[in-house]
Design the sequence.
């Protein structure tokens, strides 16, 4: 007579344990799913450093050979204050995941006269890391 009752209690405890585990894990899972773990962020930064940092700073107002990347994600193209090196070929664009991906893969596909002459980033995974890094600079 007691057996079914005991196993019933056992089940409830197990379920409770799983539920508690899921609750404790969920912030970590969310961080992983949204791609914001510390390790990912470090990788994204490295990808930017490898391909872009020789010409682009991420500090506000720090324009080098290229304009600063601070706040570039979501911004109108060709509008960084104080930067004098624009080709004039980028206006009318907004920098989002799609336009950035095209530009980094092949700058001339966005503007044939662009001044951004560099070896394009062929690997889509590497481009995604760079774009995630640029998006993270806004917040
Ligand atoms: C050899 C130097 C150089 C490298 C390397 C370089 N850029 Fe540029 N970048 C420029 C120049 C110069 C411009 C201005 C282009 C123009 O006006 O046509 C520019 C413009 C841009 C713009 C448009 C800015 C605006 O205000 O609209 C973005 C976005 C950008 N670069 C992102 C990147 C990313 C991301 C990388 C790395 C994958 C990269 N660049 C690598 C020189 C460089």
Sequence:
């Amino acid at each position: 007579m007691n057996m079914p009752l005991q196993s019933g209690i056992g089940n409830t405890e197990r379920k409770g344990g799983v539920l508690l585990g899921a609750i404790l894990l969920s912030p970590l899972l969310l961080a992983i799913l949204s791609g914001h773990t510390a390790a990912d962020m470090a990788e994204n930064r490295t990808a930017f450093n490898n391909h872009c940092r020789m010409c682009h700073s991420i500090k506000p107002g720090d324009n080098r050979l290229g304009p600063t990347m601070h706040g570039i994600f979501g911004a109108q193209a060709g509008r960084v204050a104080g930067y004098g090196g624009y080709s004039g070929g980028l206006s009318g664009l907004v920098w989002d995941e799609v336009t950035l991906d095209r530009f980094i893969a092949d700058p001339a596909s966005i503007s044939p006269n662009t001044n951004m002459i560099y070896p394009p980033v062929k690997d889509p995974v590497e481009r995604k890391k760079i774009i995630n890094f640029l998006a993270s600079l806004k917040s």
Notes: Residues 51-52, 54-56, 65-67, 72, 77-80, 85-87, 89-90, 95, 104, 111, 114-116, 118, 121, 130 surround heme C (CB under 6 Å).
